[in-house]
């Protein structure tokens, strides 16, 4: 009994320390974004929204935010659709070279983003897509689709193969089965994929930096600001970006978690 | 005999090199309740899936009312299937599960709901309509699966081991319910099972399959009383199979030397003395007595084990050289303490209750 209690506390302490290490820098940024003093140093000079006002007054930041939201939205929709299709092909069909197909599908996140960004720039430069928002979206879809694929595939692994056959048997064609069985069944994973890919796109700066040209997204704008001067406005922008991303990821996690809980309860079969 | 509705003609299904179904031919009459029975892997489920269009035959033909069906997609056929694991849609309520087939047929929402509710009521689960299917018991899922299949008013219902996931008590009740439904709806039932009791209790005709081939087709009584080969005799159980050598052949009966001595049996095969054959004697055709009377075939043996199932007792007798004979008697005959392991009895059956099968 006693050693167990001690182990429990040790593990708890360990977890706290790990989380502290992960979140301390971000908490620091958030804290100093409300600091009245322009230098991030202690003691705190008092609560102030000055830097947020400055941020909202800056049209380049507003445009960056708008661009980021458009890119994130488009990326989420496109990569989730492609991910759903790819996962379904993986679930449904067996064919020659399937291992290669799956490997290629899941490859992009393992490529360093610098390489990916450079490759995108070279390729999109040739077809005249650089400097456009669609150029950034294309790059982000390449990066995000594997995550959508993974989420939907995880869900499809739980799909009783008889369900599709049952649907055909009751008069549904392949397409109506997709609409009435596959998509409803995968719905939680699809929504989770939308949020997760939106979060990844919203955060991504390397590919965006390479291909965005004048159409800067928010992280690219942030980078440019950092290179110019160290302003506490960066803390304010960083805090907002972090808040948006964490919200998207938390929603995605909640949806995935709900599914797992249902399965743990033996509810879904 | 009802008009022929569905014909399977030399049907064959290969998966790569292995043959799941070979040369299966039989026809099903309109409104018939037919059971495909056999051990697992015998090809019965594959045959059913070919009727539903879920597996494509690699040879032969399926005809419905004389029209070739092979190339029709599953959704073009009206042959709903009740699945072994029910295959209900987990993301839909009970009512929406039942409505599924109607929705595919573009029935209006109001008409769908009305029809679904009618069938749920008919199967005694009207109160479950709003429930998610994952909150249902096995028996309730079974009824939802039946309602979902029957709501489209098919002329043929396919059932793939529908009762195997239920407990024995419920299974017997669902059997009675299926028979009642079949009688009321007057549609064709094709029922796949490996349970002899289910097939024999419900079906008009039974198709026995083994190794992808049809072994025998007939009414339950025909198959039970006259299995056509050793595999069927073993599979349906309740038979004594005595290998032996023909000693003497008369016009309609033969004398065979078996492990139990020489016995007389009906000459159902054209055999000559010296040839090998099997004598088949149904366990319920054998009587037990205390002493020999010199009438019919008589074997003296000790009781080795006893099995009581309901009102029937199965007595396993063993001779001195270890040969076994099973005898089934009504329990009431055996009451009064005379039935004990180790006690000797004379097992007796008249010659006309033994018949020959090829060895």
Main attributes?
heterodimer; A: 269 residues; mainly alpha; MetI-like fold; 0% strand; B: 359 residues; alpha+beta; Rossmann fold; OB fold (Dihydrolipoamide Acetyltransferase, E2P); six-stranded mixed beta sheet; five-stranded antiparallel beta sheet; 8 helices; 37% strand; elongated
Shape of chain B: elongated
- Number of H/I helices of chain B: 8
Helix-strand pattern of chain A: HHHHHHHHHHH
- Overall strand count of chain A: 0
Low-confidence stretches of chain A: 264-269
User: What structural category arises from helix and sheet content of chain A?
Assistant: mainly alpha
Q: How far apart, in Å, are the first and last alpha carbons of chain A?
A: 38 Å
Task: Give the number of domains of chain B.
Answer: 2
Backbone CA Rg of chain B:
25 Å
Tell me the CATH architecture of the largest domain in chain B: 3-Layer(aba) Sandwich
The figure for the number of domains of chain A is 1
Contiguous runs where pLDDT drops below 50 for at least 5 residues of chain B:
none
For this structure, the CATH topology of chain A is: MetI-like fold
The SS-based structural class of chain B is alpha+beta
Sheet with most strands: strand arrangement of chain B: 6-7-8-3-9-10
CATH superfamily of the largest domain in chain B: P-loop containing nucleotide triphosphate hydrolases
Report the C-alpha radius of gyration of chain A, rounded. 23 Å
């Amino acid at each position: 009994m006693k050693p167990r209690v001690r182990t429990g506390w040790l593990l708890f302490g360990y977890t706290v320390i790990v989380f502290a290490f992960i979140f301390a820098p971000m908490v620091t940024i958030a804290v100093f974004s409300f600091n009245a003093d322009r230098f991030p140093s202690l003691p705190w000079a008092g609560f102030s929204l000055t830097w947020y006002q400055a941020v909202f007054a800056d049209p380049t930041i507003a445009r960056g935010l708008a661009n980021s939201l458009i890119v994130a939205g488009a990326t989420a929709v496109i990569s989730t659709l492609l991910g759903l299709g790819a996962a379904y092909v993986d679930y449904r069909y067996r064919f020659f070279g399937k291992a290669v197909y799956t490997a290629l599908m899941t490859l992009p996140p393992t490529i360093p983003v610098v390489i990916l960004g450079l490759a995108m720039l070279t390729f999109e430069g040739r077809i005249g897509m650089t400097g456009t928002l669609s150029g950034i979206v294309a790059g982000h879809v390449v990066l995000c689709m594997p995550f959508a694929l993974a989420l939907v595939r995880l869900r499809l692994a739980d799909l009783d193969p008889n369900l599709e056959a049952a649907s055909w048997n009751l008069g549904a064609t392949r397409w109506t089965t997709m609409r009435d069985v596959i998509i409803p069944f995968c719905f939680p994973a699809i929504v989770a994929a939308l949020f997760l890919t939106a979060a990844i796109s919203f955060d991504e700066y390397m590919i965006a930096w390479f291909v965005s040209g004048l159409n800067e997204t928010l992280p690219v704008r942030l980078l440019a600001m950092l290179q110019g001067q160290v302003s506490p406005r960066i803390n304010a922008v960083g805090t907002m970006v972090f808040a948006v991303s964490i919200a998207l990821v938390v929603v995605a996690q909640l949806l995935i978690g709900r599914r797992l809980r249902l399965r743990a309860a033996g509810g879904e079969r | 005999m009802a008009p022929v509705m569905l014909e399977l003609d030399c049907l064959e299904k290969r998966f790569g090199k292995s043959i799941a179904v070979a040369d299966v031919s039989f026809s099903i009459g309109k409104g018939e309740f037919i059971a495909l029975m056999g051990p697992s892997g015998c090809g019965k489920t594959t045959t059913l899936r070919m009727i539903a269009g879920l597996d494509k035959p690699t040879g032969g033909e399926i005809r419905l009312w004389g029209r070739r069906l092979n190339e029709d997609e599953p959704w073009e056929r009206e042959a709903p299937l009740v699945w072994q694991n029910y295959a209900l849609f987990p993301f839909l309520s009970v009512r929406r599960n039942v409505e599924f087939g109607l929705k595919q047929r573009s029935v209006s929402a109001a008409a769908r709901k009305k029809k679904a509710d009618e069938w749920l009521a008919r199967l005694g689960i009207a109160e479950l309509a709003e429930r998610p299917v994952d909150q249902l018991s096995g028996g309730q899922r079974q009824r939802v699966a039946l309602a979902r299949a029957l709501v489209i008013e098919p002329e043929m219902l396919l059932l793939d081991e529908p009762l195997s996931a239920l407990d024995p008590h419920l299974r017997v009740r669902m059997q009675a319910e299926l028979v009642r439904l079949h009688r009321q709806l007057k549609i064709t039932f094709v029922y796949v099972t490996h349970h002899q009791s289910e097939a024999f209790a419900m079906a008009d005709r039974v198709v026995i399959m083994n190794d992808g081939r049809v072994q025998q087709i007939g009414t339950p009584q025909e198959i039970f009383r006259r299995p056509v080969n050793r595999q069927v005799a073993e599979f349906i159980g309740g038979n004594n199979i005595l290998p032996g050598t023909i000693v003497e052949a008369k016009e309609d009966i033969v004398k065979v030397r078996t492990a139990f001595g020489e016995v007389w049996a009906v000459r159902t095969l054209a055999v000559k003395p010296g040839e090998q054959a099997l004598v088949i004697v149904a366990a319920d055709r054998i009587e037990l007595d205390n002493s020999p009377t010199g009438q019919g075939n008589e074997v003296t043996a000790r009781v080795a084990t006893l099995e009581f199932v309901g009102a029937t007792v199965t007595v396993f007798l063993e001779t001195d050289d270890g040969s076994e004979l099973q005898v089934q008697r009504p329990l009431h005959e055996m009451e009064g303490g005379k039935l004990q392991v180790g006690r000797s009895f004379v097992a007796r059956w008249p010659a006309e209750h033994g018949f020959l099968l090829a060895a």
